[in-house]
Amino acid sequence: MYGDLGLKLVQHAKRTQSLSHLPPYQSELIRAITREVRDLDRDVTETLEPYPNFDPTQDPALATLLLANHICIRRNKRCLLAYHRVRVEKIEEMCWSGSDILEQVQVTKGEGQEGEAGALGAAEGGSVSSLSPEEEEYARQYSDLLAAYKGQWTDIDLTGSLDPPRDLFIDVRVLKDAGEIQTEYGAINLTKNSQFFVRQGDVERLIAQGFLQKLS
Amino acid sequence: MDDDINDILAEFDKRSVPSSTQDLNDLTKQWIAERGAPEVLPYQGPLLERIMERIREQIEIVERETGDLEPNANFRLILIQTELERVKFLVRAYLRARMAKIDKHPLYLINNPSALSHLSDPEKAYLRSHLALLNNHYLSSFLRNFPAQLRRLDDAAGGVSMVEEPDLDSAVFCRVVRVLEEGEELVVKGTDARVELMKGDVVVVRYRAVRKWVLGGEVELI
């Protein structure tokens, strides 16, 4: 039935909204819907061929058929747009929060390639990335755009926290080894499970990236 | 008569506030307004310039005086840094609130010169590049496989426009801060509600009904 696939896609989009990660790109479904659109469009063109000057009032039945086809095409288009938009928003959110999606992608890819050399490679190689190549490209370009825009506000750090700051200094616990960082008060060595009283501005990035946990 | 004196006093109070504090208060107001309003409000260029200038000065002071081990200086630095973090947050939140709206209605903004004039130049540049990126992404993801006449993103066929616009009918909380002109009253379109607004009144109303006063400064969003 026309439009079934579109509905499926929208359900995927809806589900994506409430997930914290990005589920795999539905390239099969996208292809099928695009095909449906092309088929419908061809139908319309073929139906219209014998009537160079088609007048809808002369043949209401045919006009209705055409209308139905058209509406299906447009609906599919909206479904596709909605699906991509939701994913794009997720990608942008990741760019803003500083979690480097591309790096993650590359890491998984790297593992995949290493794995391929080994015996277990095939299975891992299949789940390389949940982004489509177009989305990867988009993420890259959007990061660049964001970096360029941020560059005009270097003193502010646009991607910083949107919670109003309460204290200059905060207690943090180190969740993952993050190496040594330089602060105005000297160097701190962030080893796992240690706890520090540091300036919030110095460690904000590390909190966002999940290296540190803020203690209240 | 009493009113007159109060007005004069209020005017006087206003002048006695240092310009830096006034700027900060203004920015806070703008930030709150930006969060409340459904559309992007005019960009406060000169105000932000002044505030950024002060932030730079403060950062310089901090950089110059760190390492000074005198307890008094240290305490002063902490105060400055705390203040700095707060002002930075305010600027950041203000800019981000605007960007959120720019990202939400890009096609509407680009085709609407009066709304576009509310954006700063970097924001306009961002809007254009972002839109180009999106367009490209949709095109390369699926639209390129579409029949040519169906590739547009701003169709209005079938009576439904594809372009989403800010919902000017959403409700906002606002306060009247200046006396409105004689004979001006609040009219909510589509209803026969008419309210005379007095200075100091706080109302919840559709944004559309108070829009011109918000832009004119007679009414502030809270």
Note the topology.
The complex is a heterodimer of chains A (216) and B (222).
Chain A: H1 4-17, H2 27-48, H3 60-97, H4 101-117, H5 121-126, H6 133-150, E1 169-174, E2 179-183, E3 186-190, E4 195-199, H7 200-208, E5 212-215
Antiparallel strand pairs in A: 1-4, 1-5, 2-3
Helix pairs in contact in A: 1-2, 1-3, 2-3, 3-6
Chain B: H1 2-16, H2 19-36, H3 45-65, H4 71-104, H5 106-110, H6 113-116, H7 121-141, E1 171-176, E2 186-187, E3 194-195, E4 202-206, H8 207-216, E5 219-221
Task: Describe the structure in your own words.
The complex is a heterodimer of chains A (216) and B (222). Chain A folds into 3 domains: 4-97, Methane Monooxygenase Hydroxylase, Chain G, domain 1, CATH 1.20.58; 101-153, no CATH class; 169-215. Helix content of chain A is 57%, strand content 12%. Chain A has helices at 4-17, 27-48, 60-97, 101-117, 121-126, 133-150, 200-208, and strands spanning 169-174, 179-183, 186-190, 195-199, 212-215. Chain A has a 3-stranded antiparallel sheet with strand order 4-1-5, with helices on one face. Chain B has 222 residues and is mainly α. Chain B has a 3-stranded antiparallel sheet. In chain B, helix 3 packs antiparallel against helix 4 (71-104). The longest helix of chain B is centred in the middle third of the chain and has 34 residues, at 71-104. Chain B is flat, with a radius of gyration of 23 Å. Chain B starts with a helix and ends with a strand. The chains are: A mainly alpha (216), B mainly alpha (222). Chain A binds chain B through residues 30, 33-34, 37-38, 41, 70-71, 73-74, 77-78, 80-81, 84, 88, 92, 132, 134-135, 137-138, 141-142, 145, 149, 152-153, 155-158, 160-162, 164-165, 167-168, 184, 199-201, and chain B through 52, 55-56, 59, 66, 78, 81-82, 85-86, 88-89, 91-93, 95-96, 103, 122, 125-126, 129-130, 133-134, 136-138, 140-142, 145-147, 150, 153, 155, 157-158, 162.
